[in-house]
Each structure stands twice: as structure tokens, then as C-alpha cells.
Task: structure prediction
Amino acid sequence: MPFDAAWHFQRAQGSYDQAATIQRSMAEHLVSVLGPLAPPRGWSKVFELGCGALTLTQRLCAIFSEQDLWLNDLWSPPPERLQKLPCRQLHFLEGDAEHIDWPRNCSLIVANAVLQWFQQPLSVFSKAYEALEPDGFLALGLFLPGTFAEFQKASGRGLDYPSEQAWTQAAESQRWREVFRHTATTTLNFPSARALMQHLRDTGVNGTAREVWTRSRWEHFLANYPRSSDGSWPLTYHSWLWILRRPS
Result:
């Protein structure tokens, strides 16, 4: 993840869980699907990439408490929040998930709304293959092209999201077995441009660099942002929940 993007996320830790309605919904859906897939004794070792504000973590622990939990992010959440997690053992790995060593013999690896920040998102399959035990699960909450389309059009910047086809081909090339797939397109509508920007700040996704919004740039943004028929300011998320199983 670029340093400046990480800075935005760290600054938004206090507001993220409430403001990130799409990411929160993805986490809840992902956990609801994982429930019936769990082995009789649960997953013995769970590793979460980019735990951030613990949006997914807390929901995982509510269902799967008897586990060794490994968390990763660029910085550690407040100790008092970690201490409240009902897990058997808790380990925290600080650093960029693309470059640190992952724990081995995991039974479940999860990542929600994280991989779009990887320099090479598709590399998750190789790293997860090495970290998971045979028949272990990889559960992903992803964003696809079309996410933030309105913002990208008006600002001229944004992330390059791998397509569904690119993800599928990468998984098939390593013989991952698909267990669950669900895509959804959701558009949030804001009453003003400033409300839209506040949402982006509160979720930490207001850019990949600490750029200064000059008057001329702001006016260009306002003039070019697509508007809904009722005059509101739309922001589209194209999400994908995907669960795969590591080949034996």
C-alpha cells in the first residue's frame, strides 16, 4: 500500500466502522457464508490481512472464538481494542502484507476491502497457497472495475481494479477451487459534494496521495462529477465476495 494511502486510513480509524457501510456489509455477508463452511471444530488458525479498524475481525471473532488469530496491518490497532477480541491466542504482524512473511499452516485466510491497495493484487494466490494448509480456505472481499467510477471521472485519479476475469484466470491457473461467489453493485447518494468528500475522508479512501485541492481543481471536480436525476452526488461500489479452497 502506498504510504500516503496508509496515512489516510490511519487517520480514519475512529470513523471507519460507522462510515464504511459497504465494507461493513461485505464483512457481515462474508462471515455469514463462512459460518456453515467451518470445520466441526472450527478453524484452528486464522490470518486476516489488513485488519484496520477490526470491522471484519470483530465479526469473525463473534462466530469463531476458539481459534489462534493472526492479524496484519501497517500499524497496530489500540491495545484495548485487541484485548477485547475473544480468541484463544492473538498475534499481530505489523507491515505491508505484500512483503512480510505470512504465518504457515493457516486453515483460513481472510481479507476484506484490502487487496485493491496491493501493488500486485493477484499475487495473493501464491502467498496464500504457501501459507494455507491443504484444503484451507481463502475468503476475499474485493472491489471490481466500476468502483468509484464517478469520482475517477471527475478527479482523473483512482485505483486500477483487476477485472473479475483476471481474478478468475489467476485462481484457475493455480487450481484453486471456488466455493462461493457473489457480486453486487451499490450506489450511495450524497446531498452535496462536501458530504461525499466527508464520506471519503471518514473511510480513509480519499486518495492515494496527500494532494492539495486548489480552487481551480475543486471547481473542475464539481463541474465534471456525474449527478443523479434528483441532483444528488452518487458514488458506486462494485463489490465481490469470493471464497476459494486451496488445492490439496
In short: The first strand starts at residue 45 and ends at 49.
